Amino acid sequence: MDYAEKIVEYYDELFPVTKDEKSFFEDLVKSSAIESRILSIGCGTGVLEHHLAKKGCNVTGIDDNYCLLNSATRKSKPVYANIRFFSMSPLEMSHFLTQGFFTHIFCVSNRLIYISEIKIMKKIFADCKSLLHPGGCFVFQLPNYSYYISKGETLLPVSKSIRAKLLSKLIFAKGKSPVFLQQVETSTGNLVTIVDHKPIVLLLKDTITEWAKELGYTKVDYFSSFNKEPFDEKTSPTMVCIMQL
Q1: Model pTM score
Q2: What CA–CA distances, in Å, run from 41 to 52, 91, 110, 111, 203?
Q3: Which of 88, 123, 126, 174 could form a disulfide with 62 if both were Cys (CB 3.0 to 4.6 A apart)?
Q4: How far apart are CA 200 and CA 46, in angstroms?
Q5: Nearest Cα residue to 160 out of 187, 140, 180
């Protein structure tokens, strides 16, 4: 049983789409000079994607977890013609999706944390660039590892509902690769392990800026949240990044 099967029952509760997140993306698509054509990587159950479709955006969501994708697909039938979902991993998207088509590509809810190899991560960044229309942007959200790296073993902000809690932990041990542990605690107190000490790619601000320049992005903006508060490597627990073509 993969992590999606374990978490799908609680997914919308533990990964809520906030008002700030909706406003952030609404403002972003409004700034586009042409029709907004969105690609969501790791779309989950499609809550944000359906919100943007309601606003008139053309939305494509991809996810390689059938349980989550099935939930997203059920929400879209038969209401919207401008949204569709595909079973697809980030590694496949450049093979099946149209180059230069999308005005906005995003990957939120810290979904990039599940990528554990640096070569794969960099390929995703490069593929996003090739899929973007000139002037488009790639937006992603991650923990700010610079903030956590000196803390050793630390719990990320807990997401919780009446029925469950999402416990996510970063572990930095001297001489070892950093790893990620994620568990769901149910209302009965049971702990279900979602991710078990999986290596992470340590994406720091300097690395992202370097990759952006190397891959041909023209500008990178960093925020500490979706309400666009200024980002500080030392004090911001979260990083929201906009890589602009």
Answers
A1: 0.94
A2: 14, 10, 11, 8, 18
A3: 88
A4: 25
A5: 187
Q: From CA 48, how far away is CA 53, in angstroms rounded?
A: 9
Query: How large is the angle between the packed helices 47-54 and 66-76, nearest 10 degrees?
Result: 30
Print pLDDT tens along the chain (245 aa): 455 566 788 899 999 999 999 999 999 999 887 899 999 999 999 999 999 999 999 999 999 988 899 989 887 665 668 999 999 999 999 999 999 999 999 999 999 999 999 999 999 999 999 999 999 999 999 999 999 999 989 999 999 999 999 999 999 998 899 999 999 998 889 999 999 999 999 999 999 999 999 999 999 999 999 999 999 999 999 999 999 99
Distances (CA, A) of 162 to 14, 69, 124: 10, 24, 36
Tokens representing 100 are 């230069």
Structural domain boundaries in the chain: 3-143+201-244, 146-199
Cα separation, 151 vs 170, in Å, equals 9
Contact assessment for residue 131 and residue 104, using Cβ atoms and an 8 Å cutoff: no
User: Please, are residues 19 and 25 in contact by the beta-carbon 8 Å criterion?
Assistant: no
Take residue 160 and report the two structure tokens written for it: 């919780």
